[in-house]
Design a protein that fits this description.
2 copies of one chain form a homodimer. By secondary structure, chain A is mainly alpha-helical. In chain A, 65% of the residues lie in helices and 3% in strands. Chain A has a 3-stranded mixed β-sheet, with helices on both faces. In chain A, a hairpin with a 2-residue loop joins strand 2 and strand 3. The longest helix of chain A has 29 residues.
């Protein structure tokens, strides 16, 4: 190991430990902590965030980083070490210009505000959440402005935190294509979809049984319960302490069969990614997924491309019927597949079909751009939200819980995250196209043999963690960079076949 | 605020945050983390422990502490600040002489070993746990030797960590009295107790219903679910993040009604103590209970003095019958009270009746003394354990899970803790005696009105946190220091009445 890199190790380890502690507090806050804990605990989180920042942003690390970036030293590094140095430089770009006191206050704020969001959503009361959202946005604008360089816009700084390969220009082209292709297709499909009876999905489904079936599903996909746990939270999410401790959550509704199942499949996709990251890089700066775009590609690959396919359900649909014979005994597999792929304009992103999903993302993307271009205020948000839904989906939320309050991301300060879902969705289609050329994927699914799929993803994507970015991975796996055409083609093919258009 | 004390604040806050993080990892390890997480996570815990140590043990804090201990500065402090300075000095005594690298390795070790203990207990395999126990004991001996001063014995250093008021001399006198008084009484009582039919306790008790009833019990005692949560773990315990986040666990057995109920009452006693600590001192060095002895006095007051009394059950026994009518409809309240107070020689500390309980503690105390006097080795432990049970209880464990492996404490490195249970038990009797003079305690219980009891304990004990020690509290509440006679009298009176001796 290079001597300079060796000197860096204790700093990296310390920051890893503090970051892992913050992660655990986040998990605990969402799944366990009592309601009144937030205020005292946010002090703790604030201090840990401050220490995290100081563990990396200091003169010693700055000098070591500079040295490691210089050509002579850089040549001596292994590929993994080079990737760690690159990641450290990114962290510097993210944190160095932010005054520590502001960073700490911001972290205290988001430690409280995610809880305020839960309550506001439950109470359908946007006004209770608005002051927190205002503070979060003010901070994010300030932080983005500290960091912005050259011609970049503040919003691009935030986008880059989730996927460095996609800036406003790339996203505008991508989303214009989606709008042009998908909105007309959604209209056409949803007219035909009206005839599909999906009432079976909204009967009474015992929650204990749902939990059991979801656990089974997760294990079937490859979630390793020796390295992970499933819990409940208001908003499903995945989080990793390291590659031997990956955690997912779901929420369960008694009157909706699909909701928890597809949440669990989605989160299991994230979890399998993290569990497959190589032991040699876990607990380092490159020990997580490549990008949020890449991460969402894995969750949405499992959720949609696999999870909503007939081949996937063929070997296991019988088990679902056996779990709920009273509700499902007369629902054929074909009927069920049409049901889980029923496309129609809708209000809730996490419950959306594949065809309308990206429209939800486009709406959020456009709103976030407006926020960071100072074109709208926090007070305008519910109105703008509803207008966009009317414009693109043709429907308007009847309340803010189903509207502007539906997602948790802003309460954590995660502006710029949403596009990752759309990027991931498109990346998943691209990977799917090249996987089909390399293996009898449908046959594996019909045989209930998911291991070759998991191994392919592990060996070509997961194990590398963040040592490569999204486009580098796509180039290596598929021989070309991001190309949204695969996505458009995938959806067209799927829906034309399903709805006999 | 004194300027010197003000300068100390950031160090105290940082150590509080790191300590709270360690607490959360402990909670998570016992209740949530997946099995294979331990190894990677122990690295994180090791680093956080190291940082915790460094946050307090450094030249800046050393100088500030010294200054605050000098007369002139000391006079300027408030009582709370004085208590914090005293507590900081104690922390210095505990940590200063231990080499940081050893402290970190020890914390990594206990982060893994508690998990090894769970497995060894489950598998009834002492040999799997012995190497870990050996390492833990080696560390504890070394640490104690670093700290020992004057004529003190190494074991006394450890005892002092849990209650500064009780050294070997005090405990020897206390335990000799117990042995002399209790062993003959236990023999007499257990002969009579044989006629009490307790078979109802070992019928089938649905675990979901047990959890519901335990939750009810906990709330009835005053556990505030806005400030606390209940979870499950192999060994019941209580732990606090701060006074607005206090957590307890229990374990549930389908074939034992009492076990979870009295665990929950016990842990609720600890929790109520922590929840009642004043807002002004939570998250400071004096923000926890006064001592482990004092803490156990509160848990055992609720568990035994209140929880096993007829008055306590009078208003709520009907609810228990309603929960399990098939098992309890023919069991009268008087029968139930005799059942929950059935005394007999037994093997499991946490399941023991009040009369035999302290004998369990004496056995552990004597063994710990032998360990730290280098009189026995780790290999001797199962044999010595079994011999002691035969000597004092007249019975021998048939396996190590019911013997030397039964308690979790040693796997955490907590040698010197056990006497706290006996101290607490005796302290509880002393407080009970003076409470009865000050309020119609039995009447409150019969009315199902626990608030005046809780308020008395809050105002005279809980709110002070660790600003007073055990004897100071007893002096203020009862007008005298620790006096074990109350305990002996309480047990004699109770059992003479119950068994008509």
């Amino acid at each position: 190991m290079s001597k300079t890199f060796e000197k860096l190790q204790p700093y990296l380890e310390k920051s890893m430990a503090l970051q892992t502690a913050r992660t655990l507090f986040e998990w605990d806050d969402q799944t366990t902590a009592p309601f009144e804990a937030a205020e005292n605990t946010s002090k703790v989180v604030g201090i840990l965030s401050d220490e995290y920042m100081k563990s990396l942003i200091n003169d010693d690390v700055r000098k070591l980083l500079k040295k490691l970036q210089e050509e002579k030293e850089h040549k001596e590094l292994t590929d993994t070490e080079k990737a760690i140095v690159k990641e450290l430089a990114k962290t510097y770009e993210q944190l160095e210009s932010i005054p520590p006191a502001e960073y700490r206050t911001f972290n205290e704020l988001t430690s409280v505000s995610s809880r305020k969001w839960v309550k506001a959503k439950k109470d359908n009361n946007y006004e209770d959440f608005a002051p927190y959202l205002q503070k979060i946005i003010d901070f994010k604008k300030k932080f983005a402005r500290y960091r912005v360089k050259g011609n970049k816009k503040p919003y691009e700084v935030l986008l880059g935190d989730f996927d460095e390969c996609f800036m406003i220009e790339d996203l505008d082209i991508f989303f214009d294509k989606i709008k042009k292709e998908m909105i007309p297709l959604l209209k056409e499909v949803s007219k035909k979809a009206e005839t599909i009876d999906k009432s079976y999905n909204y009967l009474n489904y015992d929650i204990t049984k749902q939990k059991e079936f979801c656990k089974y599903l997760s294990g079937y996909l490859g979630f390793d319960f020796n390295k992970g746990v499933i819990a409940e939270s208001a908003h499903p999410f995945t989080l990793q302490m390291h590659n031997h401790d990956v955690r997912i959550t779901s929420h369960y509704y008694e009157d909706n069969l699909e909701s928890a199942m597809f949440s669990i499949i989605h989160e299991s996709g994230h979890a399998i990614y993290e569990m497959n990251i190589d032991d040699s890089i876990t607990q380092t700066l490159v020990g997580g997924g490549a990008s949020m775009g890449m991460h969402e590609s894995q969750s949405r690959f499992y959720e949609n491309i696999i999870g909503r396919s007939r081949d996937f359900w063929e070997p296991i649909y019988g088990k679902l019927i056996d779990t709920y014979p009273e509700n499902l005994k007369n629902i054929t597999l074909d009927h069920f597949i049409k049901g889980i792929n029923k496309a129609a304009p809708n209000l809730i992103r996490t419950e959306a079909d594949e065809l309308s999903y990206c429209i939800h993302i486009i709406i959020r993307y456009e709103i976030e751009k407006m926020i960071f271009n100072d074109e709208i205020t926090v007070d305008d948000l519910p109105k703008v939200w509803n207008q966009k839904y009317q414009e693109y989906m043709g429907i308007t939320p009847s309340n803010d819980s189903d509207g502007v309050l539906q997602d948790t991301h802003w309460s954590w300060g995660e502006f710029g995250y949403f596009p990752s879902y759309a990027i991931g969705t498109a990346v998943a289609s691209q990977i799917y196209a090249c996987m089909k050329e390399k293996m009898p994927l449908e046959q594996y699914l019909r045989e209930g043999n998911l291991m070759p799929i998991r191994e392919f993803l592990r060996d070509s994507i997961h194990k590398y963690g963040a040592t490569k970015n999204t486009n580098e991975i796509l180039q290596d796996v598929c021989g070309e960079k991001f190309n949204a055409d695969y996505y458009v083609n995938y959806l067209k093919e799927k829906y034309v076949a399903l709805y006999e258009l």
